[in-house]
């Protein structure tokens, strides 16, 4: 037991015990008691955002960079509602995050008071766990449970509702560090041997991997497994550097939208190893026929719910990817015949040559006669790459412009490249702010589309307020370009003749003045409209000691 003090003070002591250094939020009246107490805890910085979606987005970027639970404060039902979309992003992306939300008090439960809402009910669909503290003497116990749940695989956001009258009451709970769990379990030798027997003789093997590789730190183990087996690696729910982009066996991501895009790859394999993801994380996944008849499928994940979630597998192993992949690579080396090993080496050589040729051809097309053509994302990325340090950190929400960016800014370093993952627009700008807070000594670049930027533009104000020197690149094509691509696919599936795109996909009029908006929020900026302006703009952005925005006016076909 500890000395009695108000719960509003005790919860901050608990945050200290757990090493919390930042609270990301937007304040409100029902949280004022707790927020006022922060003046006595200078080692915890409150990072103010002007909208709750921006606050959650900044916290998401910070948590993804640190791999520690971020602490977010939201205001009552309205504030929680404003943050729901970004909480969905955090849930789908397995971001460890603890959200605290205030309310007027338990005493007012029967009054239908202004602003009252079922916060736990609101958050259930976008959190791992949601709860409400009704006894001040369990405040710290509930917070520790929240941090433990958020930081236990599969990671994700949790909500703790803190009524004001409960926070004003006394508690003698002691603030002690949360007991975090070691979930790095290994599969049995028998299971690994069975997996090796199922996979060893494959002639067209593939690995489908996701962010569970990054969470486990299994990048080296995945690369070794793929090289041993001679297997192409395809990403699904891939928003981290789970394998270096330049590795000869990494082929890119499967379809994020339509199952038909993935089917041509998955159905051609005679053996499939799935690790660190569920199948298939698409908006319109195939209902069946994902794998070829007779193909052997082995699925490894720490999240048992992900295994065989939608399609049957031959063997499912609930295990830590790093341990399991290392053991499986060992077993394959024993199980594979000399003929198997020779075929695997040949697949790797052929794949490396094809990949290098394809990248060179794509870059040549990007830069052919580029100075006389409209500005493109590729031309910008080519120049930017020349001036960035090797340890640059990228938050990429450029969507339709992402392929061009990734041809020059290569996602090779684990923890240095984050992509959007929950299909929620607006993560790029706040995500880069959070990434820079977590990595103040590194160059951080955030890419976003013009449409997505407008969801959370307020994050620029936070960057300016705290001089968070991230650099932001807005790929401004005046359209929801991804919708253009998706509706064209839809026309094809429905037999609809090509015709003009829907008018509401066009956001070019009135033109959005990103430079003017940035200036109004305290961020310096420049607009680029021609290839000849790129070099100077890149120099301005990288030389400036504070946050800087580049409005990249690209052609609609970039």
Automatic annotation (TrEMBL):
Domain of life the protein comes from: Bacteria
GO terms classed as biological process: isoleucine biosynthetic process; L-valine biosynthetic process
Domain Thiamine pyrophosphate enzyme central: from-to ranges: 192-325
Signal sequence region: none
Keywords: Thiamine pyrophosphate
GO cellular component, one term: acetolactate synthase complex
Keyword Ligase: no
Family matches, as Gene3D superfamilies: 3.40.50.970, TPP-binding domain
GO molecular function: acetolactate synthase activity; flavin adenine dinucleotide binding; magnesium ion binding; thiamine pyrophosphate binding
InterPro entries, A to Z: DHS-like_NAD/FAD-binding_dom, THDP-binding, Thiamin_PyroP_enz_cen_dom, Thiamin_PyroP_enz_TPP-bd_dom, TPP-bd_CS, TPP_enz, TPP_enzyme_TPP-bd
Domain called Thiamine pyrophosphate enzyme TPP-binding: residue spans: 404-551
Family under the similarity heading: Belongs to the TPP enzyme family.
Protein's name in the database: Thiamine pyrophosphate-binding protein
């Amino acid at each position: 037991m500890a000395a009695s003090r108000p719960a509003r003070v005790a919860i901050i002591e608990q945050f200290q015990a757990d090493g919390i250094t930042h609270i990301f939020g937007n304040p409100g009246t029902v949280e004022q008691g707790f927020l006022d107490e922060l003046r006595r805890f200078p080692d915890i910085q409150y990072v103010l955002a002007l909208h709750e979606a921006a606050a959650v987005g900044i916290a998401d970027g910070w948590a993804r960079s640190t791999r520690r639970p971020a602490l977010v404060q939201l205001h009552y039902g309205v504030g929680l509602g404003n943050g729901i979309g970004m909480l969905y992003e955090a849930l789908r992306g397995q971001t460890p995050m603890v959200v605290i939300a205030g309310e007027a008090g338990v005493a007012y439960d029967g009054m239908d008071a202004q602003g009252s809402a079922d916060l736990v009910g609101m958050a259930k669909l976008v959190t791992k766990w949601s709860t409400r503290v009704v006894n001040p003497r369990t405040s710290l116990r509930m917070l520790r449970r929240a941090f433990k749940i958020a930081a236990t695989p599969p990671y994700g956001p949790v909500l703790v509702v803190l009524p004001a009258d409960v926070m004003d009451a006394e508690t003698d709970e002691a603030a002690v560090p949360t007991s975090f769990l070691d979930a790095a379990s290994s599969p049995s030798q028998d299971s690994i041997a069975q997996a090796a027997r199922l996979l060893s003789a494959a002639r067209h093997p593939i690995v489908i991997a996701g962010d569970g590789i990054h969470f486990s730190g299994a990048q080296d183990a995945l690369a070794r497994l793929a090289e041993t087996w001679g297997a192409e690696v395809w990403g699904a729910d891939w928003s981290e550097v789970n394998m270096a982009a330049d590795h000869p066996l990494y082929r890119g991501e499967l379809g994020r939208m339509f199952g038909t895009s993935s089917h041509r790859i998955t159905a051609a394999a005679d053996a499939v190893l799935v690790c660190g993801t569920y199948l298939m994380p698409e908006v319109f996944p195939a209902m069946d026929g994902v794998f070829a008849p007779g193909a052997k499928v082995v699925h490894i994940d720490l999240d048992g719910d992900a295994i065989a979630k939608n399609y049957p597998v031959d063997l499912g192993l609930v295990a830590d990817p790093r341990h399991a992949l290392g053991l499986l690579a060992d077993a394959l080396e024993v199980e594979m015949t000399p003929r198997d090993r020779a075929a695997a080496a040949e697949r790797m050589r052929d794949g490396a040559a094809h990949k290098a040729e394809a990248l060179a051809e794509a870059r040549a097309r990007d830069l052919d006669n580029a100075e006389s053509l409209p500005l493109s994302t590729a031309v910008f990325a080519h120049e930017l790459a020349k001036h960035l340090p090797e340890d640059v950190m990228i938050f990429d929400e450029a969507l339709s412009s992402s392929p061009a960016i990734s041809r020059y800014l290569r996602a090779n370093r684990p923890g240095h490249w984050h992509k959007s993952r929950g299909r929620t627009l607006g993560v790029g700008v706040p995500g880069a702010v959070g990434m820079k807070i977590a990595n103040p000594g590194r160059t951080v670049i955030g890419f976003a589309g013009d449409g997505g930027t407008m969801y959370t533009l307020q994050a620029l104000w936070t960057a300016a307020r705290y001089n968070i020197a991230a650099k932001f690149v807005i790929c401004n094509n005046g359209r929801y370009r991804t919708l253009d691509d998706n509706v064209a696919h839809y026309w094809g599936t429905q037999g609809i003749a090509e015709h003009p795109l829907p008018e509401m996909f066009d956001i070019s009029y009135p033109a959005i003045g990103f430079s003017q908006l940035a200036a109004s929020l305290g961020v310096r900026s420049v607009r680029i409209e021609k290839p000849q302006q790129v070099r100077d703009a890149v120099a301005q952005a990288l030389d400036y000691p504070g946050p800087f925005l580049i409005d990249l006016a690209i052609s609609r076909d970039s």
